[in-house]
Each structure stands twice: as C-alpha cells, then as structure tokens.
Design brief:
NADH Oxidase; four-stranded antiparallel β-sheet
C-alpha cells in the first residue's frame, strides 16, 4: 500500500479482534514513532506501552469508560516531556513537546494502518488518573492514548470539509 492509500484507508477503529500483534509489527510501529520529526530533533516525548489487562481496564475507566480500549492488544500512551525541549527553547519548549508527542502518535496511526492494524486517537481522559496508572514522573504529561490491534470492524469513510472551506490562501 502506498502512502496516499494508507492515509485514504485509515479509519478510527473501536472494535478489535482478540489477536496478538506480532512483535515484528510492534517493533515497526515503535521505530516509526521514533522517526517522527521533532523540534530540534530533541524528541521531547516518551511512549508508554501497556499490555497488562488490569492497567488497560484502569485506563479505560480513566478515559471516561471508552470500553474498546481494553479490547486492543496494545495501548500506547504518548507523553510530552517539556523539560527536554525547554532547555533549548525556554517556555516555547513546552508547546514543542506537545507537538513532538502528537506528531509521533499520528505517525504510529499511519504505520498501524499500513500494517493492517487498527487504531483510534483518544484525547478524552483524566490526565491525573492516567499519570497515576502509568506512574509518570512530574515532568511528563500524557497527551494522547492510542489503542492498537487487529480491527474487528471496517468503518465507512466520513465526510470531510471541502478544501475551499479548509484552506485560506493569504
């Protein structure tokens, strides 16, 4: 599948098969996350990989009971690490760390689609509870949760904005 086909076919998957992701595919996902661009190449983010069933249930609850989270084989939690970029960029580094984490998460979603896996972006969660569940240090902030697994559904394409509504030439 070429890049544009991957982008076109990627969907938010909220139903997963109870099939394990092969370690080779998981490694490809994580390597792709590591290749994502970042401000000053500082990679001001950390990724927490969760496979433990009890922790997945706790994450589900802390994510306002989005039950499909616990169905996914793997849950990746992308956390900004502002202290890595603030050394170079001052206060603006906090924003760059958020960008670094979210760009990496988006790359993982595209990689998952290319590998025949499904994922969904979760931004609705109790940040404090997630931090406690994965035992984050004070310098890290969870910004995105990405459950990944083999899809048990094939959602249809949703309508998108027209380009002339989206793009403003200046």
């Amino acid at each position: 599948m070429d890049f544009f086909e991957v982008v076109e076919k990627r969907r938010s998957i909220r139903k997963f098969l109870s099939k394990k992701i092969e370690e080779e595919k998981l490694l490809k996902l994580l390597n792709t996350a590591n290749l994502a661009p970042s401000a000053g190449n500082l990679q001001a983010f950390e990724i927490f990989l969760v496979r433990d069933e009890k922790k997945k249930q706790m994450i589900c609850k802390a994510s306002y009971n989005q039950d499909f989270i616990k169905e996914a084989d793997v849950v990746l939690i992308f956390c900004a690490n502002p202290s890595r970029s603030m050394k170079w960029y001052g206060e603006r580094g906090e924003f760059y760390a958020l960008q670094d984490a979210t760009i990496s998460a988006a790359y993982v979603q595209l990689a998952a689609a290319a590998l025949g896996l499904g994922s969904v972006w979760i931004g609705a969660f109790d940040e404090k509870k997630i931090s406690e569940i994965i035992e984050l240090s004070d310098n890290l902030r969870p910004v995105a949760i990405i459950p990944i697994g083999y899809p048990a559904e094939a959602p249809t394409k949703k309508p998108r904005r027209k380009l002339n509504d989206l793009v403003k030439q200046v």
